[in-house]
Amino acid sequence: MRKQHNNPMIKHIAIAGNIGAGKTTLTKMLAKHYGWEIQLEEVDNNPYLADFYKDMSRWAFHLQIFFLNSRFKQVQEIAQIQAPVIQDRTIYEDAYIFAKSLYDQGYFVQRDYDNYLSIFESMIQYVEAPDLLIYLKSDLDNLVRNIENRGRDYEKTIRIDYLQELKTHYDTWIQNYDKGKLLIIDVNTINFVKNPEDFSSIVSKIDRELFGLFS
Ligand SMILES: Nc1ncnc2c1ncn2[C@@H]1O[C@H](COP(=O)(O)OP(=O)(O)OP(=O)(O)O)[C@@H](O)[C@H]1O
């Protein structure tokens, strides 16, 4: 079912969440449902991701710079496209979740982290927040199950404490998020791929945010 988006104020929808939360799948399903343009993460063409998971200290800075630039280019493109766009992960997550937790865990040396933050601060002035942020809230069991099921070779080395650290940063970030509309979807007890009614319930919540009388 295709439903054209008819709220001129809403142009940029973003999906946020931990590794394995289901962002990419939901992004594609929502893009199809609403007829939105789509912006995915650079995973297959990412020159650092596989090396990063083998040796995080060695490649943390390179990977963060790559993702930061890639995400910045996406927001620039979104600003220029007239049609509504749905984006798989935000630039905030790169800085406030990934870079921060890599620094906290000692994978970033101080001067590299300072350098990264300085680049981020320069860029963020030119970034508009999404009109609607959809956060997929997931516990660790669910993340691990999804990561195992998709079976990417380079993700086999992901440690549970790395996911836990990311989750802690996500919790803090979402609690304090005030840049625009926020919709939190608990994905622990639903399966929007297998159960059409779970997908419909997500769509109803989004409809309420986008087209509701008091939204
Ligand atoms: N800034 C970042 N720093 C470190 N790793 C990152 C960063 N951004 C993305 N990644 C990693 O790149 C890969 C992206 O994969 P993908 O787009 O499938 O998303 P995902 O995070 O696994 O989430 P989902 O399963 O919800 O789609 C994951 O291993 C992810 O965590």
Automatic annotation (TrEMBL):
Domain Deoxynucleoside kinase: 13-207
GO molecular function: ATP binding; deoxynucleoside kinase activity
Gene3D superfamilies noted in UniProt: P-loop containing nucleotide triphosphate hydrolases
Keyword Heme: no
Active site: D88 (proton acceptor)
UniProt-recorded name of the protein: Deoxyadenosine/deoxycytidine kinase
Residues the entry annotates as binding ATP: G17, N18, I19, G20, A21, G22, K23, T24, T25
SUPFAM superfamilies: P-loop containing nucleoside triphosphate hydrolases
Alphabetized UniProt keyword annotations: ATP-binding, Kinase, Nucleotide-binding, Transferase
